[in-house]
């Protein structure tokens, strides 16, 4: 038995979408259980597919022809599945998180008596379906299509509470900003199809392979040397990545997206929307590895975003806002890893981040329920003793986020920084990216533990914090599962330990190096070295690892020192003018809103005035001139429509009779 | 005889509805409008066309060719038939009319029989436009569409209906006149090589280089002048900047079902005719004018979208966005690739369904609230959840959401345009036109945020009630069709490619 059931991985959540939409009102838990069953099924099938791949299986089949090319030179556009180590691993992550988010939603949404739940579960189902289809897409066009559907789902779920003002606005912003990025992505997809005649990721004649051959052959594509054209196409696709993965400067939608229900935030940040961008780069890594410029830009944007977002996270008071900026920052690390040819490191961090970020969001969700939907950390405090399950799992997630040994985030982030450093020692641009990433480690440690201390430690600072609402199993189980994963997931690729002991324990590297050679990690590294000129200096991973760990501990320690004690006070004012800039998010929103509303609206109104005044003015002018001349004929214009109809009919009859006589009918 | 039967049945249906008592007219009209629909489905089962109806070596489906009026030197033939380009548009027409009729049940409350009679009369003429292959007969049908449309806007329209109706009529009639003169000049220029207005024959003669001078113009100059005259005539109908200003007025004043047909089918007459005349008969002239035409198309995309962004009236938003969407069609046509022209043809159908749906949704909201102004309503998703849900789906369809018909059309156009060898700088033109997908998202998202979401508020004195079933059924049907075509574009695209392929091969040497 091969992979013939694999399409069900995505189709089950699609079924749950339809069922919840049509019949959710009459179902137990308003469709929540159907969603759990569907995503649970997806999870089992994903694990099964992963096991098949682990035992040497590989699947790359076209299953459905969307548009079949008929004539010569027209290409066919199709849907298919690509199941390899990377995609099956991601399938497991996505379906696992989706399953846990469904379970958690029973507590967060159903138990809180929300209305519109069928719509909610339908949205979750569609979201999971879109993301899973995106993950196992075997070509770039299919990936783009589901990438867009992921955007739709985020719109629907961020704007779930549509009766309020803020959520619809945030939903609109999320879709619009990512759409701006997707515009470039779409040009890239069209360009790749037009250039190579295929958008297949893998197999004989896949587009990365054709691009490589074109570069080697010194071809000219669309008037450019092949290398330049590949860079242009790669950067166009990167536009979509920057939008969805919330990288600078298209990160502004993500903090606003916190208006959505918290389980949705967990899904968006850990496993679906935001992960989609980074995953896409990994999926077509054979293409990016051909372009030194694209790689450097990916690395630099990543490093910059990691630092930039982490600095804003430092001053936020809303627990979800802190997590939002941490997401942007963490995806910056993944981009950094990808840009320095640290393919395994970035994928590794994508996985660990999925676990600990889902955990942190669900933990924050648990706190928010307990606090009667209070999100300001200054009104919390002291929840440690009241909510032990939440506290310890949240702490595990925080240690992972901060990158502290031995939690999962330490291993993956450390590996990214190590890869960035050894590549950076050969290339100053990459070194700058590394430096920013390294500095961000301190900030990460700081804001993470500021959040932990303010939320869980000290004395309760409000009535709600003194008497939190007790939680049910449906919130505790996901937290426990993710808490364990956030703690241990890093053990799959402990590079420094492998270096120290000489043991062969970098399982993830081996995993990503299995499967077809074309998609293997070592091929990518070789390609990046040959074409993108990314060379690695000789260096032991121990020293950079130690530096990063010290910085993380210093950041965390600073936060603990500043905010410990029963009654912590805000220290942000000490930042002086910098605080205002940070609280205002570097005024990124202002200029983007000005671009989208101020400038564009003004141009639109100008165009409207021009259209009404000049273009239509000319038309009306001509007609008034002719009306003046036809004043005499005016008596015909009686304004009675039946007269017109009579006139027209008469004229038609006369014409027909005339023709009839002329044509010899009579 | 099948096409003749279809046209005749529709005409008779129109007459019957004219004479039906007001009380039964809506139901009778709907029932009778199902006849052409079923008829077109029946045609589909027997559809055996291959190739392009205007080009040699093709098989035209359901073809009838007979001399009708023998004039010297030009005979007028009754020549009808369908190919892969015209058939999808025929189906679009017969699908949209019953739905438009049902959507008229609520808003149309006076002169009911006449209203539905005119709609069916228009449908019959539209079927004629899409199936006729003789210029003279085609022109009669072409003009015959105008009359019911003029009356439908002028009698059942909004407050400024007279202005809008007369503007529509005069504008499109002047355009028809210019087009007519341009085409007749071309026929005269062909001299003895043609002896009828038969469109395939004229096409063949033009492609064989039979054009000689006329009225002091040399063959090349004549072809160019005729091309421009014909292009102008059809550009008004499409409409393309700068001859688009009749459109928003007509749409705003027209009642919902009329808007549905105006945007859904009537605009496609323009693009269909452009494809048949300018891009098939005179494809070599089109190639020399590729850059200016592409500029007009791309400019229409961005300009129409910017205008839509400035509007406060939901109907005006949709109306202006049609200009934008039709700009894509022009880009696809001018690219002269299989996916360019094929995508443009597909987009005609896709946009017909989606814009029809948008107008219907706006109509349902208007029926309930009696306003269409963005500032007057907010949060109606609270009171009309199903309508709001369909609004969201329709808007995302309009934005080109994958797996809905609009994406297929737009994507194929973009792909075809990017690869164009006829159009210099094609990738750049394509990239600029594609920015339309961002602006369209902008204005539709803003409109949705303000009208559907937020706290419920209504500035008019009406109590919102749930929309009646017959308002909502057409919406569901259209959504289903849009998704169906988006998931499986080959339903139409296979036959479209089949008809477009020989045309593009013809221009292969360009």
From TrEMBL, chain A:
<keyword id="KW-1133">Transmembrane helix</keyword>
<dbReference type="GO" id="GO:0016020">
    <property type="term" value="C:membrane"/>
</dbReference>
<feature type="transmembrane region" description="Helical">
    <location>
        <begin position="120"/>
        <end position="137"/>
    </location>
</feature>
<feature type="transmembrane region" description="Helical">
    <location>
        <begin position="143"/>
        <end position="162"/>
    </location>
</feature>
<feature type="transmembrane region" description="Helical">
    <location>
        <begin position="89"/>
        <end position="108"/>
    </location>
</feature>
<dbReference type="GO" id="GO:0003954">
    <property type="term" value="F:NADH dehydrogenase activity"/>
</dbReference>
<dbReference type="InterPro" id="IPR018393">
    <property type="entry name" value="NADHpl_OxRdtase_5_subgr"/>
</dbReference>
<dbReference type="InterPro" id="IPR001516">
    <property type="entry name" value="Proton_antipo_N"/>
</dbReference>
<feature type="transmembrane region" description="Helical">
    <location>
        <begin position="542"/>
        <end position="563"/>
    </location>
</feature>
<feature type="transmembrane region" description="Helical">
    <location>
        <begin position="431"/>
        <end position="456"/>
    </location>
</feature>
<feature type="transmembrane region" description="Helical">
    <location>
        <begin position="391"/>
        <end position="411"/>
    </location>
</feature>
<feature type="transmembrane region" description="Helical">
    <location>
        <begin position="350"/>
        <end position="370"/>
    </location>
</feature>
<dbReference type="GO" id="GO:0051911">
    <property type="term" value="F:Methanosarcina-phenazine hydrogenase activity"/>
</dbReference>
<keyword id="KW-0472">Membrane</keyword>
<feature type="transmembrane region" description="Helical">
    <location>
        <begin position="222"/>
        <end position="243"/>
    </location>
</feature>
<feature type="transmembrane region" description="Helical">
    <location>
        <begin position="264"/>
        <end position="282"/>
    </location>
</feature>
<feature type="transmembrane region" description="Helical">
    <location>
        <begin position="644"/>
        <end position="665"/>
    </location>
</feature>
<keyword id="KW-0812">Transmembrane</keyword>
<dbReference type="GO" id="GO:0042773">
    <property type="term" value="P:ATP synthesis coupled electron transport"/>
</dbReference>
<dbReference type="InterPro" id="IPR001750">
    <property type="entry name" value="ND/Mrp_TM"/>
</dbReference>
<feature type="transmembrane region" description="Helical">
    <location>
        <begin position="183"/>
        <end position="202"/>
    </location>
</feature>
<dbReference type="GO" id="GO:0008137">
    <property type="term" value="F:NADH dehydrogenase (ubiquinone) activity"/>
</dbReference>
TrEMBL record, chain B:
<dbReference type="Pfam" id="PF00361">
    <property type="entry name" value="Proton_antipo_M"/>
</dbReference>
<feature type="transmembrane region" description="Helical">
    <location>
        <begin position="221"/>
        <end position="247"/>
    </location>
</feature>
<keyword id="KW-0560">Oxidoreductase</keyword>
<keyword id="KW-0472">Membrane</keyword>
<feature type="transmembrane region" description="Helical">
    <location>
        <begin position="348"/>
        <end position="369"/>
    </location>
</feature>
<feature type="transmembrane region" description="Helical">
    <location>
        <begin position="259"/>
        <end position="279"/>
    </location>
</feature>
<feature type="transmembrane region" description="Helical">
    <location>
        <begin position="285"/>
        <end position="310"/>
    </location>
</feature>
<dbReference type="GO" id="GO:0048039">
    <property type="term" value="F:ubiquinone binding"/>
</dbReference>
<dbReference type="InterPro" id="IPR003918">
    <property type="entry name" value="NADH_UbQ_OxRdtase"/>
</dbReference>
<keyword id="KW-0812">Transmembrane</keyword>
<feature type="transmembrane region" description="Helical">
    <location>
        <begin position="390"/>
        <end position="414"/>
    </location>
</feature>
<feature type="transmembrane region" description="Helical">
    <location>
        <begin position="426"/>
        <end position="446"/>
    </location>
</feature>
<dbReference type="GO" id="GO:0016020">
    <property type="term" value="C:membrane"/>
</dbReference>
<dbReference type="GO" id="GO:0051911">
    <property type="term" value="F:Methanosarcina-phenazine hydrogenase activity"/>
</dbReference>
<dbReference type="GO" id="GO:0042773">
    <property type="term" value="P:ATP synthesis coupled electron transport"/>
</dbReference>
<feature type="domain" description="NADH:quinone oxidoreductase/Mrp antiporter transmembrane">
    <location>
        <begin position="134"/>
        <end position="425"/>
    </location>
</feature>
<feature type="transmembrane region" description="Helical">
    <location>
        <begin position="139"/>
        <end position="156"/>
    </location>
</feature>
<dbReference type="GO" id="GO:0015990">
    <property type="term" value="P:electron transport coupled proton transport"/>
</dbReference>
<comment type="similarity">
    <text>Belongs to the complex I subunit 4 family.</text>
</comment>
<protein>
    <submittedName>
        <fullName>F(420)H(2) dehydrogenase subunit M</fullName>
        <ecNumber>1.12.98.3</ecNumber>
    </submittedName>
</protein>
<feature type="transmembrane region" description="Helical">
    <location>
        <begin position="467"/>
        <end position="487"/>
    </location>
</feature>
<keyword id="KW-1133">Transmembrane helix</keyword>
């Amino acid at each position: 038995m091969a992979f013939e059931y694999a399409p069900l991985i995505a189709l089950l959540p699609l079924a749950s979408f339809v069922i919840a939409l049509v019949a959710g009102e009459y179902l137990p838990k308003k469709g929540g259980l159907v969603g759990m069953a569907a995503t649970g099924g997806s999870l089992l099938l994903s694990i099964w597919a992963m096991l098949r791949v682990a035992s040497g299986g590989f699947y790359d089949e076209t299953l459905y022809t969307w548009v079949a090319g008929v004539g010569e030179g027209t290409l066919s556009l199709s849907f298919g599945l690509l199941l390899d180590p990377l995609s099956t691993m991601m399938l497991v992550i996505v379906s696992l998180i989706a399953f846990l988010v469904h379970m958690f939603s029973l507590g967060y949404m159903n138990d809180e008596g929300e209305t519109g739940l069928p719509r909610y579960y339908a949205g979750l189902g569609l979201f999971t379906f879109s993301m899973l289809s995106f993950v196992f897409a075997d070509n770039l066009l299919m990936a783009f299509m589901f990438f867009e559907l992921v955007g739709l789902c985020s719109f629907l779920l961020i704007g779930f509470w549509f009766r309020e003002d803020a959520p619809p606005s945030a939903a609109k912003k999320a879709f619009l900003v990512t759409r701006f990025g997707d515009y470039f992505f779409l040009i890239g997809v069209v360009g790749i199809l037009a250039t190579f005649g295929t958008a297949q990721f893998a197999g004989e004649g896949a587009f990365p392979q054709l691009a490589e051959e074109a570069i080697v052959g010194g071809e000219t594509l669309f008037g450019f040397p092949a290398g330049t054209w590949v860079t242009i196409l790669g950067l166009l696709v990167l536009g979509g990545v920057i939008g969805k993965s919330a990288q600078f400067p298209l990160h502004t939608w993500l903090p606003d997206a916190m208006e959505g229900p918290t389980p949705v935030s967990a899904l968006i940040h850990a496993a679906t929307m935001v992960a989609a961008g980074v995953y896409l780069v990994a999926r077509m890594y054979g293409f990016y590895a051909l372009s030194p410029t694209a790689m450097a830009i990916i690395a630099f944007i990543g490093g910059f975003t990691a630092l930039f977002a982490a600095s804003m996270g430092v001053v936020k008071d809303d627990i979800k806002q802190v997590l939002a900026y941490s997401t942007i920052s963490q995806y910056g690390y993944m981009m950094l890893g990808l840009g320095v040819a640290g393919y395994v490191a970035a994928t590794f961090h994508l996985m660990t981040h999925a676990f600990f970020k889902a955990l942190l969001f669900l933990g924050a969700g648990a706190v928010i329920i307990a606090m009667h939907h209070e999100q300001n950390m200054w009104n919390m405090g002291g929840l440690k003793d009241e909510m032990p399950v939440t506290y310890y799992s949240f702490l595990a997630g925080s240690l992972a986020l901060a990158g502290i040994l031995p939690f999962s985030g330490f291993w993956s982030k450390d590996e990214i920084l190590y890869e960035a450093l050894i590549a950076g020692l050969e290339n100053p641009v990459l070194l700058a990216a590394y430096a920013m990433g390294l500095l961000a480690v301190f900030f990460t440690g700081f804001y993470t533990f500021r959040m932990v201390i303010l939320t869980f430690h000290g004395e309760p600072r409000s009535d709600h914090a003194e008497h939190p609402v007790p939680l049910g199993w449906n919130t505790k189980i996901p937290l426990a599962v993710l808490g364990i994963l956030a703690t241990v997931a890093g053990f799959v690729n402990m590079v420094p330990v492998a270096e120290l002991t000489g043991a062969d324990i970098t399982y993830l590297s081996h995993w990503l190096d299995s499967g077809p050679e074309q998609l293997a990690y070592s091929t990518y590294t070789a390609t990046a070295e040959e074409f993108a000129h990314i060379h690695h200096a000789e260096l032991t991973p121990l020293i950079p690892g130690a530096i990063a760990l010290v910085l993380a501990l210093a950041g965390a320690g600073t936060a603990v020192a500043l905010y410990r004690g029963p009654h912590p006070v805000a220290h942000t004012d000490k930042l002086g003018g910098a605080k205002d800039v940070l609280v205002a998010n570097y005024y990124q929103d202002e200029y983007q809103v000005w671009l989208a509303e101020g400038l564009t609206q003004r141009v639109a109104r100008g165009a409207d005035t021009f259209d009404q005044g000049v273009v239509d003015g000319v038309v009306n002018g001509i007609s008034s001139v002719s009306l003046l001349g036809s004043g005499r004929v005016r008596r015909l214009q009686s304004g009675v429509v039946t007269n017109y109809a009579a006139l027209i009919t008469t004229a038609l009859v006369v014409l027909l009779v005339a023709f009839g006589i002329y044509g010899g009918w009579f | 005889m099948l096409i003749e039967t279809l046209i005749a049945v529709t005409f008779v249906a129109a007459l019957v509805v004219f004479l039906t008592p007001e009380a039964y007219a809506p139901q009778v009209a709907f029932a009778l409008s199902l006849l052409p629909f079923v008829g077109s489905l029946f045609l589909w089962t027997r559809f055996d066309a291959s190739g392009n109806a205007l080009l040699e070596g093709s098989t035209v489906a359901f073809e009838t060719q007979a001399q009708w009026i023998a004039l010297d030197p030009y005979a007028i033939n009754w020549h009808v038939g369908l190919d892969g380009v015209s058939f999808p548009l025929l189906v679009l027409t017969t699908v949209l009319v019953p739905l438009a009729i049902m959507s008229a049940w609520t808003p149309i409350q006076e002169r009911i029989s006449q209203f539905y009679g005119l709609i069916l009369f228009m449908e019959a003429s539209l079927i004629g436009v899409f199936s006729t292959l003789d210029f003279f007969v085609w022109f009669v049908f072409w003009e015959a569409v105008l009359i019911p449309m003029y009356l439908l806007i002028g009698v059942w329209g909004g407050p400024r209906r007279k202005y809008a109706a007369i503007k529509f009529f005069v504008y499109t009639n002047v355009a028809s006149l210019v087009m007519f003169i341009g085409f007749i000049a071309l026929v005269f220029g062909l001299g003895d090589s043609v002896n009828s207005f038969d469109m395939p024959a004229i096409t063949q003669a033009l492609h064989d280089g039979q054009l000689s001078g006329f009225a002091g113009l040399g063959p090349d100059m004549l072809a160019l002048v005729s091309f421009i005259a014909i292009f102008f005539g059809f550009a008004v109908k499409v409409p393309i900047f700068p001859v688009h200003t009749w459109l928003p007025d007509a749409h705003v004043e027209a009642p919902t079902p009329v808007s549905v047909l105006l945007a859904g089918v009537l605009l496609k007459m323009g693009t269909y005719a452009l494809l048949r005349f300018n891009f098939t008969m005179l494809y070599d002239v089109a190639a020399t004018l590729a850059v200016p035409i592409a500029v007009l198309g791309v400019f229409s995309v961005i300009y129409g979208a910017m205008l839509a962004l400035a509007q406060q009236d939901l109907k005006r938003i949709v109306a202006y966005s049609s200009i934008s969407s039709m700009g894509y069609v022009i880009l696809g046509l001018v690219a002269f690739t299989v996916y360019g022209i094929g995508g443009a043809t597909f987009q005609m159908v896709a946009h017909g369904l989606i814009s029809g749906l948008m107008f219907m949704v706006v109509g349902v909201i208007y029926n309930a609230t009696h306003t269409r102004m963005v500032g007057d309503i907010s949060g109606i998703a609270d009171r009309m959840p199903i309508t709001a849900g369909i609004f969201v789906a329709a808007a995302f369809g309009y934005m080109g959401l994958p797996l809905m018909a609009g994406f297929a059309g737009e994507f194929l156009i973009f792909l075809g345009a990017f690869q164009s060898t006829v159009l210099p700088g094609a990738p750049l033109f394509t990239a600029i036109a594609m920015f339309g997908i961002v602006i369209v998202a902008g204005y539709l998202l803003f409109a949705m945020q303000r009208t559907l979401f937020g706290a419920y508020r209504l500035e008019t004195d009406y109590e919102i009630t749930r929309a009646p079933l017959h308002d909502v059924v057409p919406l569901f049907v259209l959504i289903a069709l849009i998704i169906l075509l988006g998931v499986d574009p080959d339903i139409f695209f296979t036959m479209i490619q089949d008809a477009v392929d020989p045309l593009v091969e013809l221009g292969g040497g360009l």
